[in-house]
Write a structure and sequence with these properties.
single chain; mainly alpha; 0% strand; FUND1 protein; transmembrane helix; FUN14; membrane
């Protein structure tokens, strides 16, 4: 019999796993530090720049598409409202918005420690991979501009 409340999990030590499995070292290398340390500074900047440009370009395109969809939806809703096809209960809308605000405030207060941990981990990652990160930021800005 298996009780879901008493599940047990095995902890896997990756350093010991890598020592026992030689294919792991062939695929990922022996360096256990940041991946960028394996490459020259120029290669890291190029890798970060290319991935940043791709991300910025996609962000720009998706942002334009989302703005067009939201704006078009509001425009169609306004036309339908003025034509008499749609009747909006503004008191109910206001009540629902206030209810949503209260729920968001409660959830934001609960999520604060998780967000702080994520920020700390992100900051540490950027510090360890500063060359790749700076290339990514530059590429991202170029991608947004193109």
């Amino acid at each position: 019999e298996h009780d879901s409340d008493e599940d047990s999990y095995e902890v896997l030590d990756l350093t010991e796993y890598a020592r026992r499995h030689h294919w792991w070292n062939r695929v990922f290398g022996r360096n256990s530090g940041p991946v960028g340390e394996k490459y020259s500074v120029a290669t890291q900047i190029v890798m970060g720049g290319v991935t940043g440009w791709c991300a910025g370009f996609l962000f720009q395109k998706v942002g334009k598409l989302a703005a067009t969809a939201v704006g078009g939806g509001f425009l169609l809703l306004q036309i339908a409202s003025h034509s008499g096809y749609v009747q909006i209960d503004w008191k109910r809308v206001e009540k629902d918005v206030n209810k949503a605000k209260k729920q968001l405030k409660k959830r934001a207060n609960k999520a604060a420690p998780e967000i702080n941990t994520l920020i700390e981990e992100s900051t540490e990652f950027i510090k360890q991979n500063i060359v790749v990160s700076s290339g990514f930021v530059g590429g991202f800005l170029l991608g947004l501009a193109s």
